[in-house]
Specification:
Beta-Lactamase; Phosphatase 2c, domain 1; PPM-type_phosphatase-like_dom; hydrolase; Bact_Sigma-Reg; protein serine/threonine phosphatase activity; PPM-type-like_dom_sf
Length: 424
């Protein structure tokens, strides 16, 4: 990202700030650079991606003449009231900005601003407004920045603030591993230890490139077993795995951690996907002696020609959506990783056409059983078809919502992973 002017000043301030104080540093910097802003609040999405949760209370931004150091602002935050109830993404203005990745501007009466999101002329007598700015990093939706303002916006302000949402997203991704503040904020309840281990393995919720868009979701979020997804985008290809771990709880999480770690180690050493699967198979077998294994889909998608190389070592399945037609991708099922030593794995290939969508699921989706029986391939195909016009990032949750509805309010009996890949 190339920033200039005020967004560049914000970027510099965030880069120099301690990892735990990004919201306070941002609020102070915004007040210095944008006089109409009177308050700022950072919201992050929860593990279910159904709610936005407050990182810092609605913060009255200090006047330029006041003490705007991060420590002073943090002290004001500590004295503020308890955080409000989580804000539901569906049906809220903040949620609309989160989902669309576009700023949403509201007037004082709660109506959409008449400027159509382009800002006003800087009129100081304009009514108070609230601006919701999406916070993103390389296509991944992290949350929303809520800004209160008095007076109108000057020309170009909203475009700059939209850019600042991306600046903040990049800064958050860097700061996330240096403090627990943002992880704590996104939790509506305590995670089990197994869930803690699983979430640390995930690469994120979404990733975009020049030729593709990718998004994934893991459900349930707070108490899970061994399902997982992983990806790595390179200059010429995308590596993608979906793992269906055996068992439940901490043992399943440890098994999946070993599998994902072994696959990553082989991939980062330059091994092709056949070698990756074979090396991971050997590592799991050495540890568990064939008593435990993981069913894994290992994929490589070449950007030059759109050819998918794939090893089906177990149960995860691929659906291809081409236009309105949804069809399973036929694959030769090979042995799960860790079942027998010295297993050789052979990659299959199939081509993608421009506009193709792949929906990849673990058996916690298509084999899930609810009061009405098994979810099944037909219901999965219907869910994928119903979501065909949705943005890539919305598809995994749309399929999960269909699965939850199938369960009629009962808890899922197994983990459910859904990954959506769009080939542009």
């Amino acid at each position: 990202m190339s920033t200039h002017g005020r967004p560049a000043k914000v970027e510099r301030a965030l880069r120099l700030a301690p990892a735990h104080s990004l919201p306070e540093t941002l609020a102070a910097t915004l007040r210095d650079e944008y006089p109409p802003i009177t308050s700022a609040r950072l919201l992050v999405n929860d593990y279910h991606s159904r709610f936005l949760l407050q990182v810092a209370p609605l913060l009255a931004v200090p006047a330029p003449a006041g003490d705007t150091t991060p420590s002073a602002v943090a002290a004001a935050v500590a004295a503020a009231e308890e955080p409000p109830e989580p804000l539901r993404i569906h049906g809220s203005d903040a949620g609309r900005a989160f989902v669309s990745r576009r700023p949403v501007l509201l007037s004082a009466d709660g109506s959409l601003d008449g400027h159509g999101g382009q800002g006003g002329d800087g009129d100081p007598d304009a009514p108070p407004q609230t601006l919701f700015v999406p916070v993103t990093a390389r296509g991944e939706r992290l949350g929303v920045l809520e800004l209160g303002a008095t007076g109108g916006w000057a020309g170009g302000d909203l475009d700059e603030l939209a850019e600042i949402g991306q600046v903040l997203g990049s800064a958050l991704k860097v700061a996330w591993d240096h403090t627990d503040r943002y992880e704590r904020a996104r939790r509506r309840q305590r995670l089990t230890l197994a869930a803690e281990l699983q979430w640390q393995l995930l690469p994120g919720h979404a990733c975009t490139g020049e030729r593709f868009s990718l998004a994934g979701h893991l459900e349930p979020a707070y108490s899970i077993g061994g399902d997982n997804f992983d990806w790595s985008a390179e200059h010429d290809h995308l590596a993608l795995t979906v793992t269906n771990g055996a068992g439940t709880g901490i043992q399943a999480a440890l098994l999946t951690s070993l599998t994902v770690g072994a696959l990553r180690n082989a991939r980062r050493s330059g091994a092709d996907i056949g070698e990756q699967a074979s090396l991971a198979n050997d590592m799991v077998h050495v540890r568990y002696g064939g008593r435990e294994f993981t069913e894994t889909l290992v994929m490589r998608i070449d950007f030059a020609d759109g050819v998918v190389h794939v090893i089906d070592a177990g149960s995860p399945r691929i659906l291809r959506l081409r236009g309105t037609e949804v069809t399973p991708v036929p694959l030769e099922q090979q042995l799960p990783l860790g079942m027998f030593p010295d297993t050789e794995y052979r990659a299959q290939r199939f081509p993608l056409e421009s506009g193709d969508r792949l929906v990849i699921v673990s058996d916690g989706v298509f084999s899930a059983r609810g009061p009405r029986g098994e979810f099944g391939t037909h219901a999965l195909e219907q869910a994928a078809r119903s979501a065909r016009l949705r943005d890539t990032a919305d598809v995994p949750l749309a399929v999960i919502d269909e699965l939850i509805e199938h369960h009629e309010g009962t808890d899922l009996a197994d983990d459910a992973v859904v990954v959506c890949f769009d080939w542009n």
